[in-house]
Amino acid sequence: MKFQIEKETLLDPLQQIIGAVEKRQTMPALSNVLIRTTENSLTLTATDLEIELVSQIGMVVDEPGEITVPARKLLDICKSLPNEALINFTVRNNKALVQSGRSRFSLTTLPANDFPSLDTINSVYDFEITQKTLRDIIDKTAFAMAQQDVRYYLNGLMLEVSSNYLRAVATDGHRLAYCEKLTNADIADIKQVILPRKGVLELVRLLSDSEDMVKITFGSNHLQVDFNQIRLTSKLIDGRFPDYNRVIPTDGDNVISADRDQLRQALIRASILSNEKYRGIRLTLEKNLIKLQAQNPDQEEADVELEVVYDGDDIEIGFNVNYMLDVLNVASSEIVQAALRDSNSSFLLTYPDQEDCKYVIMPMRL
């Protein structure tokens, strides 16, 4: 194998796929990147057996071939070279030689045959959506994913496609985030997949706020997202996601309307003296007024009041302040609304100008 490439042309795709490189090195090949060249293209592949990232570069190649080299070392070498540097890459006698100017590096290699690949994806359904829309729907929900929960199906993001809609739902059992967006999907029934946490985080890292289209393919065991020159393939969580429609309350007659930023600042102030482990805050609702109270084991207390628009029952309820702040941090709306039935019911948080998103927060005993 032999080719010549500019530093930036190689560095960008390397940075895009590096997230899939296995850090724990359960197999030696998983810490490597697979470099495969044809006469007119160079393809970089990295995997940890849960996700696979592939980036393709169109270019003229001197001698086609395939080999694997240590991914992070190659990335560090590229980063260390000066801008506008030209890299000569050659494989001889099971060694990869990387030369640029007066710098020369010799890397160990492993055969391409040792490099594992994810199973071929069997397409169940595919559709297209803009990068901006996909990123937005993930940003507004992914924070509610569980982390290392024994209910493994909660450790990811549920994506549901139906006619003209893509929905994302995440829950850790204490809160739920729901968002839906219009798409060009033309499908008679409803299809659901659960994308694991790592796949979600890598996907967000790759997405931009552009109107460029990406193709999403739902497979029986995998989800694949195709960009212009990058392809992400992720295994799916095999499990049944909870029925989110049963969790979203519809009987909240007591509705609060508040300035989002003012409520956020009030919650931050009250949380300073909350219990660091449980983060519980007591909220008391009176006519056009919210009272926030926090206590900690050191017998310290915080009392914060905020004027709101409210004409419902007097209610006292406890909740985790971090859950509420997470919801307020993912939106840019000026006004937030919260609806609840009584002191034992869940909060339903919505934004009047973003009706496609809903958030549920369970109460907690204080």
Description:
The protein is α+β, with helices and mostly antiparallel strands and 366 residues long. The chain folds into three domains: 113 residues, DNA Polymerase III, subunit A, domain 2 (DNA Polymerase III, Chain A, domain 2), CATH 3.10.150.10; 124 residues, DNA Polymerase III, subunit A, domain 2 (DNA Polymerase III, Chain A, domain 2), CATH 3.10.150; 113 residues, DNA Polymerase III, Chain A, domain 2, CATH 3.10.150.10. It contains seven helices and 24 strands. An eight-stranded antiparallel β-sheet has the order 5-2-3-4-16-15-14-9. The protein has an eight-stranded antiparallel β-sheet with strand order 13-10-11-12-24-23-22-17. The protein is elongated, with a radius of gyration of 25 Å. It starts with a strand and ends in a 5-residue tail after the last strand. The model has no long low-confidence stretch (mean pLDDT 95).
Low-confidence stretches: none
Distance between the termini: 66 Å
Q: Structural class per helix/strand content?
A: alpha+beta
**Helical content band:** 10-25%
What's the domain count?
3
Largest sheet, described in full?
A: 8 strands, antiparallel
Task: Give average pLDDT, whole number.
Answer: 95
Major beta sheet, strand line-up: 5-2-3-4-16-15-14-9
Superfamily at the CATH H level of the largest domain? DNA Polymerase III, subunit A, domain 2
Number of helices: 7
In terms of DSSP E residues, the strand content is 35-45%
**General shape:** elongated
Radius of gyration: 25 Å
| CATH topology descriptor of the largest domain | DNA Polymerase III, Chain A, domain 2
Annotated CATH architecture of the largest domain: Roll
Total DSSP E strands = 24
CATH class designation of the largest domain:
Alpha Beta
